[in-house]
Structure formats: structure tokens, C-alpha cells
Here is the input.
Amino acid sequence: MWEKGININEVKEIRTGSRIYFGVGAINKINDIAQELTAKNINKVLVVSGKRSYKLSGAWDPIEKALNQNNIEFKIYDNITPNPTTHQVDEATELGLDFGAQAVIAIGGGSPIDAGKSVAILLKYPNNNARELYENTFMPDKAVPVIAINLTHGTGTEADRFAVVSIPETETKPAIGYDCIYPLFSINDPATATKLPASQTIYVTLDALNHVIESCTTNTASPLAMSLSKEAVRLIVKYLPDSIQDPEDLTARYYLMYAAMIAGISFDSTGLHFTHALEHPLSGLKPELAHGLGLAMLLPSVIKKVYASKADILSDVLEPLIPDLQGNPDEAEKAAIGIENWLFNLGIRSKLADEGFNEADIETLTRQVFDTGSLAGLLRLAPIPADENTIKEIYKESFTPLSAVHSK
Ligand SMILES: [Fe+2]
Here is the structure.
């Protein structure tokens, strides 16, 4: 129980590809960051955010103050929505180019931060647009510095080199991954996550949970991915109920933010596989669908498919969720239903049929997995062969609960 020996008010510095300030009060590190930007002769920044959370969370006041005190001019693009689009990225880039922005401060969850990372690239490639970036028509190796102010505990984007943006014209949601978009600095302050509504609290945490379940079962998984995945699952199972019960519980937010961050570090090295490859077409087709909910609907069937090939690892990593797995390949059904029950107990009962999908969509969804380069790339990391039939079976099985006992 090492957590008890940790002072959550002590701000630690954790380095990955990014320098991350982590702990209650970490938001005040924006002063040091502003000074470092000034020392690099950066005096114009573009702030990228959604409409409300950057102020509601309490993050904006100290940021605005630090920018003013350090004579850093800024423009704000606050039009980023959940499942952000290439159009939003292009609009923000235009604002940044007109202003002469030398860095991007992205404030929010995965959507504003991923959009901000994309803008950071395009500020260095003014002749290209966001759709070209996400359709891989050019391969960037430079971006202006990104400062990620993370307000949730899901994506891990504050610690990794990935970004995801939707292309409305093709109803696809590709990902990019480039070293040049590791945030130069990130801030993870649990106090700025306490205003997340209960549903979002659950969805973002389920995103982090899926990151580690996939990360530790990719065919690129390392011992580091095991350590990080096991620990992330333990912390999520322990602290998610606390943060649902009391959104202001800073200890719970601290460990959920920590779990999401180490999940991001884990899959930064290993990549992901089925659940993410199959979810992106869902929220690409229905932008109102929360990424975490899309993942939750697919997870039981994915576990059922991959368990036998990774029984040793999954029985260990999932132990806090399903305590009585022995690591035998024939436990696949039991593991899948165990996950489904855990989700149901959290109140996540929706399946694809409940979210407006019908079986006629399976063909289109499957095509999108194979036709979107970044998603097809994830399939190559899967622990079992990811042929068309397997993908279709996972979608089909995710329309209704696996366990008849729990069917509505
Ligand atoms: Fe994700």
C-alpha cells in the first residue's frame, strides 16, 4: 500500500517524452513554464480549448496571470468540441498563423490537447491542412512547442506523441503519432479535474483502462507495459468508485490521473489493438458518442477473443477486476463476462444497439478499420490474427450484452 506514504500535495516532476508536473497545485507551475518560454524568446502563444472547461476547472486564471506577468501575448481558440474535427484544427491554425503564434497551450481533455498538437504541427507547415496531416500525405518532423494542461484522467495524451482528430467528409477518426508533438511541458493537477461530471469521470477512466488492457496484450508489450498496466488497473478499480461518489475527492482524482498518465506512457511504447481500432469508426460515424463508452461496449467481446492467447498476462493484470482467474486459456468467457459485470455495476449498460447502431453498419465499420491507415496499423499489433471475420464478430457480439442474465 505504498500510496499511503505519498503526499499528494507535493508536486513531483516526471519525465517521459514530456516533462510533466503532477500533483495538487501543479497548475501553478505555469509560472515556471511561462518563464522558460520567455527564455526561449517565445512571446506569442495560441491557447486551444473547448468552450467552458478551461475556465470552469479553475485552470485558466493562473494561466492568464502567468502569461500576463511574463509579457506573453495570447489568442484563444475555444471552439474545440468532443471528437474534434480537421475543420476546427484548420480554423485554429489560421488564427495562430495570423497572430504569429510561437507555441500552443492546449487546455482540456484529449480533444483540445490532440487538436492543439495538430495545430502545433500545422503552424510549421502552413502550406498543408489538417486533412492532409491526418491522411498522411506528408510526414512532419517539426512542430512549435506544445504545453498540455490536462483536465481529465483518460487519454494520456499529456504524456505521449499521439493525437486523434476526425475528418467529417469521410466520417473517419484517424490517429497520428510523431515525436515532435510530445508536449514540452504538461500539467496534471487533480484539483482541475474535480468539475468533471460523473458520466465523463467514468468514460475517461474507461479510456485509460482500455489503454492498458490493450497495451499489455499487444505483441510489442514489454515488462514496463506489464508494470504500468497492472498498476493502472489496480488504481482504477480502487479509486474510480470514490471519485464517482465524491467528485471533489482529491486523493481519488490524484490516483486516477496517475493511472491515466502511466497508461499513456505504457501505450506510447507498445501501441494499442482491437478495442481502439474498432472504436474509432464508431465515434467517427457518431461524433456524439463518447470514446470511453464506445470502448466499453466493445471490451467484453475483445477480451473474449484475445484472452486465450494472453491468459497469463490478462489473469494477472485483471486480477483487481476479476479476482479468481487462474490464467487458463479456457477462462475467456468468464473473463469477458467478469468485465461486463464490472461495467454494469458502474452503470455502463449500453451496447451498440442502444446507441443507435444497427447490424447493417457492420460492413461500413469494418471497411473503415481496414481503410484508415492508423487503425489498420493497430491491427498488426493484436495478439491474434486480425482478419475481417474477427472484426465483424467483435462488432456483432457487441450489439447486446454477452451475458443473457444481464440482457434488458
Ligand atoms: Fe483512447
Remarks:
- The longest strand covers residues 44-49.
- Strands lie at 12-15, 19-22, 44-49, 73-77, 103-108, 146-150, 162-164, 175-177, 185-188.
